[in-house]
Amino acid sequence: MTRNATTDSDAPRVVVAGEMLIDFLPDRQGPLESVASFTKRPGGAPANVAVALSQLDETPAFATRVGDDPFGDFLVETLSEAGLDTELVERDPEAKTSLAFVALGEEADRGFSFYRDRTADTRMQPGSVPDATLASADWVHVGGVTLADEPSRTATFDLMRRGQDAGATVSFDPNARPELWDEFDFEASVAEAFELADVVKATPEDLEALDYEGDPETMARRIRSDGPHTVFLTLGSKGSLVSASEESPWVTEETVVSHEGYDVEPVDTTGAGDAFTAGVVAALVEGQSLAETLSFANAVAAVTTTATGAMTALPDRESVRQFRES
């Protein structure tokens, strides 16, 4: 996928939109009630994707909304230090920045306890991404968390439609968080997002929340039947796969490609899925094949699990290259 020659060659090729929040990482494994102290880290799935893309030399335009509070100051500073323009970061004077307390399991898997009641990222506004930004973009990526509350729900669907109208590839990550859904139905909301998406990245846990059954290929094919032409599934220690229809611009016929992943000693899996998504987007916008895209994205995710935190563990291209060579 390449930029239209009539657009600004210096404009970002990728637009990412969604929540940005504070992750509080525990000082030990185990349930939250056993944790004595936490370390503050920037987080939020779309924000992780945006920073990961910047690390991979594909700096996007990132639209989000944070509180006009010290946590919001910290997040804006984090984005600036990562090389992102903060022009599309809205500051909300009437709402706080979202917080998430992370619990780590024995296998470095994690659980979350969210403090996100009417916080700033639930109040993203439609039209906050300018038409000119979309006109220059090849890719628009959003996640499912912002579909749980208004007006961020309307803003997310609006951006997906406008991205399609502008000719960009639109990708979506359901990012199932059942505890965040109250006003709207998760399954129906994701179904609507699937209809608007060209590419979906999901996990078996996401699909279980959607009552999908079957092996990964079957579940990916079912997602494709709902609208997307290309579906990436991350499968934990089993690697990942991509299922693409003949309508996908990266194949000429229906195709399934798998990658077994990489062996690492994980420290913290927080943000690994978002790192994978960034690897997919970075590879595809530069014209890589689906097989190379899977290999690259798996490597980005694997390196991310070897350090704590989400954004703080994201690798650059040189780190990924060295990892793959080793």
CATH topology: UDP-N-acetylmuramoyl-L-alanine:D-glutamate ligase
Helix content: 25-40%
Spatial separation of the terminal alpha carbons: 30 Å
SSE series: EEEHEHEEEHEHEHEHHEEEHHH
CATH class: Alpha Beta
**Can you tell me the overall shape?**
globular
Number of strands: 13
The CATH homologous superfamily is called Ribokinase
| Unreliable stretches covering 5 or more consecutive residues | none
- DSSP helix count? 10
Strand content: 15-25%
Over all CA atoms, what is the radius of gyration? 18 Å
Task: Walk across the major sheet and give the strand order.
Answer: 5-4-1-8-9-10-11-12-13
Mean pLDDT: 92
Q: Pairing-aware structural class of the strands and helices?
A: alpha/beta
What CATH architecture label applies?
3-Layer(aba) Sandwich
User: Main β-sheet: number of strands, strand sense, barrel status?
Assistant: 9 strands, mixed
Number of domains: 1
Q: Brief overview, please?
A:
With 326 residues, this protein is an alpha/beta fold. The protein has one domain (45-94, 125-325): 3-Layer(aba) Sandwich (UDP-N-acetylmuramoyl-L-alanine:D-glutamate ligase), CATH 3.40.1190.20.
